[in-house]
């Protein structure tokens, strides 16, 4: 299963990985399926196996982050205290993904806090990279779309 192959779980104790693998559910979703919506209680962490998922934030404008590489993680909001999705997850194509229930992960990490801390730090890295990419894209768009103002 993909859980044992992705960087998020790299070098985590084998017994912990097996417990995580036991709670994983492989699911198939059709094109245009909405996996979750921004503001909804975040109950699941997902790992993409195949297909493309767009993470969409709408607030006056629209910001879309596209995931298409096997092993990409999304639904990370399930792992933080606020526990609400910060974007909507929409299948652009048919999608195959692994889904993990937040409460089950929390139980595993309460027994193995060292593994939980490592995984949270890695998730923070994923979030940081996405945020940096979003900043870069916004700044690039601003430069090309900006019309100088002469007063």
Terminal CA distance reads 60 Å
Order of helices and strands: HEEEEEEEEHH
CATH topology: Jelly Rolls
* CATH architecture assignment: Sandwich
Question: Mind telling me the CATH superfamily name?
Answer: Jelly Rolls
Could you say which structural class the secondary elements and strand pairing correspond to?
alpha+beta
Rg (C-alpha, Å): 17 Å
**Number of strand elements:** 8
Strand order of the largest sheet: 1-8-3-6
The stretches of 5 or more residues where confidence is low (pLDDT under 50) are: none
Question: What number of domains?
Answer: 1
The level 1 CATH classification is Mainly Beta
Shape: globular
Helix content: 25-40%
The pLDDT mean sits at 88
Give a description of the structure:
- By secondary structure, the protein is α+β, with helices and mostly antiparallel strands.
- The protein has one domain (2-143): Jelly Rolls (Sandwich), CATH 2.60.120.
- Helices cover 35% and strands 28% of the residues.
- The protein contains 3 helices and 8 strands; from the N terminus they run αββββββββαα.
- The strands form 2 sheets. The chain has a 4-stranded antiparallel β-sheet. The protein has a 4-stranded antiparallel β-sheet with strand order 2-7-4-5, with no helix packed on it.
- Helix 2 crosses helix 3 (113-145).
- The radius of gyration is 17 Å and the shape is globular.
- The termini are far apart.
- 21% of the residues are buried.
- The model has no long low-confidence stretch (mean pLDDT 88).
Concise account of the structure shown:
With 151 residues, the protein is α+β, with helices and mostly antiparallel strands. It has helices spanning 14-23, 102-111, 113-145; strands at 25-29, 34-36, 44-50, 53-59, 61-67, 73-74, 88-91, 95-101. Helix 2 packs across helix 3 (113-145).
């Amino acid at each position: 299963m993909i859980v044992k192959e992705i960087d998020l779980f790299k070098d985590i104790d084998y017994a912990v990985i097996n417990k995580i693998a036991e709670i994983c559910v492989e699911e198939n979703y059709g094109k245009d399926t909405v996996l979750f919506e921004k503001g909804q209680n975040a109950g699941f962490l997902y790992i993409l196996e195949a297909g493309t998922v767009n993470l969409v934030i709408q607030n006056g404008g629209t910001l879309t982050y596209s995931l298409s590489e096997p092993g990409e993680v999304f639904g990370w909001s399930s792992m933080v205290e606020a526990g609400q999705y910060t974007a909507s997850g929409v299948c652009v194509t048919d999608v195959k993904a692994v889904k993990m229930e937040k409460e089950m992960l929390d139980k595993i990490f309460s027994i193995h806090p060292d593994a939980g801390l490592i995984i949270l730090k890695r998730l923070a890295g994923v979030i940081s990279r996405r945020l940096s990419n979003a900043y870069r894209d916004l700044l690039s768009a601003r430069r090309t779309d900006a019309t100088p103002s002469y007063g």
